[in-house]
């Protein structure tokens, strides 16, 4: 999902259609962007202040520094700030986070005189408003300020990842958590302002980006509360409740449920999948992807829990016989698959998710799930169902070639 931006100001109402300063700035920025794209492409990625491409970094920083100083007092301040953030977003897309941070987002935030305090240390709403919005949230530059704060936060995060991608250093983890907390604080202030709903949307993207990385590294417990907050914000903003954002809301819901699974709280994962989104997704069957994500989460738990015997109940062990001669579905597991999913692709995805244990440590030997006979039977049935689906797909492919 791509972040959204605020509509740019129409400068013609200040100087008319023929404004030489505006035209000159646009030309110089266009040349700078072409230069950055060319350098970025030739170096096969972003260049940094330290390394063999040090000269290119210095040159680009000097060009941008001179442009901003040249036009700062020649154009309306609001338009000048818009150009700062526009170039910052462009540099962030090129993964030139350091340049975007110091020459764009940081330059915009210099007006608030926060050199003596790190924005990550601002944790109270009143403190936040007194620093950045002393004149209230109805000021002309409110949207730009929120935009710059979000941009600075995500650039800080990317710089942390560049230096410590696995977050092995405790200080790196602390910085990431501080950035998440600050992004949540921004969204707390923005949420009542319906006209700034695009900032809520962007904030959820930034939070998801950071939390997804934490989940991959096995820190789902730390990411959970922020993903849940992002989901609640999407539900609390009326403009973001439209069909257009349904797919993104579903991704956030699925991430929350995955955190539950990673923390071994399967019941809450299933309940969240049902309560958060199934009600309105069921009424919009055209959104197959959204419906599929939630169905997979429910299946992941239901396929095992329905076969577990109640505690305290003694019953003889029954041997499960796997017969290939019977028509599909062969057993209760395949029946549940056929009931919940249409098509072999969706069924195979559900099987992969059900047999995957995200919180299991790979180097530790042992069963992936509790040592219960019923669980092992379900796993065997899932594996056999997956093998049969792959075999059927292979036959179809061969038949097409013939």
UniProtKB/TrEMBL annotation:
Read off the Pfam families from this record. Answer: CFAP54_N
Single GO biological process annotation from the record: cilium assembly
InterPro entries per the UniProt record, alphabetical? CFAP54 (IPR027912)
- Report what the protein is called: Uncharacterized protein
- Write down the species: Callorhinchus milii (Ghost shark)
Upper taxonomic lineage: Eukaryota, Metazoa, Chordata, Craniata, Vertebrata
């Amino acid at each position: 999902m791509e972040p959204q931006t605020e509509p740019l100001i129409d400068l013609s109402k200040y100087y008319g259609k023929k404004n030489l300063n505006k035209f000159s700035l646009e030309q110089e920025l266009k040349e700078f962007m072409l230069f950055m794209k060319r350098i970025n492409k030739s170096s096969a990625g972003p260049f940094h202040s330290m390394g063999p491409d040090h000269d290119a970094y210095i040159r680009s920083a000097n060009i941008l520094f001179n442009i901003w100083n040249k036009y700062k007092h020649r154009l309306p301040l609001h338009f000048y700030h818009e150009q700062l953030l526009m170039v910052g977003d462009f540099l962030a897309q090129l993964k030139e986070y350091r340049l975007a941070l110091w020459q764009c987002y940081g330059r915009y935030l210099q007006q608030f005189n926060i050199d003596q305090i790190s924005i990550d240390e601002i944790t109270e709403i009143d403190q936040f408003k007194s620093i950045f919005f002393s004149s209230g949230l109805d000021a002309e530059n409110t949207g730009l300020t929120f935009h710059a704060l979000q941009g600075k936060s995500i650039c800080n995060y990317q710089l942390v990842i560049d230096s410590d991608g696995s977050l092995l250093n405790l200080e790196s983890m602390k910085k990431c958590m501080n950035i998440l907390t600050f992004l949540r604080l921004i969204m707390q202030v923005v949420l009542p302002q319906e006209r700034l709903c695009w900032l809520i949307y962007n904030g959820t993207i930034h939070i998801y980006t950071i939390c997804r990385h934490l989940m991959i590294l096995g820190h789902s417990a730390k990411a959970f509360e922020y993903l849940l907050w992002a989901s609640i914000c999407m539900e609390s903003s009326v403009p973001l409740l439209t069909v257009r954002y349904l797919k993104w809301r579903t991704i956030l819901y699925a991430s929350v449920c995955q955190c539950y699974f990673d923390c071994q709280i399967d019941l809450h994962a299933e309940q969240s999948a049902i309560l958060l989104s199934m009600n309105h997704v069921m009424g919009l069957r055209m959104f197959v992807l959204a419906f599929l994500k939630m169905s997979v989460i429910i299946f992941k738990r239901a396929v095992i829990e329905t076969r577990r015997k109640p505690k305290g109940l003694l019953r003889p062990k029954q041997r499960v016989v796997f017969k290939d001669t019977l028509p599909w579905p062969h057993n209760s597991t395949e029946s549940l698959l056929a009931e919940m999913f249409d098509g072999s692709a969706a069924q195979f995805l559900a099987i992969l998710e059900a047999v995957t244990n995200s919180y299991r440590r790979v180097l530790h030997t042992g069963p992936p799930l509790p040592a219960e006979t019923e669980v092992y039977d379900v796993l065997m049935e899932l594996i056999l169902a997956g093998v049969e689906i792959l075999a059927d797909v292979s036959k179809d492919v061969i038949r097409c070639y013939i």
